[in-house]
Amino acid sequence: MDTITTHEAKTHLSRYLADVEQGARFIIARGNKKVAMLVPIPQEENPPRPKVGETLDPDWKIPDSAFAPLSKTELEGWGL
Fold it and tell me: CA 56, CA 46: separation in Å to the nearest integer?
């Protein structure tokens, strides 16, 4: 792991970030004192987005009983 000064880090930050994206790691020092590390952040994989009309939930089916007529007792409860 290479050690760089704060001045180097400020002056060449873009270059160091490009190296870090490739997996490099740097210690940043102020004088002779090591104060920080520049390391890559683990990237999270984004789950694939559904296509238009697709759902993420498992398939479900409406039971036939949902379409059955209501009984007289059920209808009376609705005031019908």
Answer: 14
Question: Which domain does 22 fall in, by range?
Answer: 2-38
20 close to 40: Cβ distance less than 8 angstroms: yes
Distance between CA atoms of residues 37 and 14, nearest Å: 16
Phi, psi of 28 (to 5 degrees): -105, 130
Q: Answer yes or no: is 13 within a domain.
A: yes
In a domain, residue 48? The reply is: no
10-residue mean pLDDT series, the chain (80 residues): 94 96 95 95 85 82 89 79
Flag whether the pTM goes above 0.70: no
Residue 69 lies in a domain: no
Q: Is 52 domain-assigned?
A: no
Structure token digits, residue 67? 């379409």
Q: Tell me how many domains the chain contains.
A: 1
Helix (H, G, I), strand (E, B) or coil at 67: helix
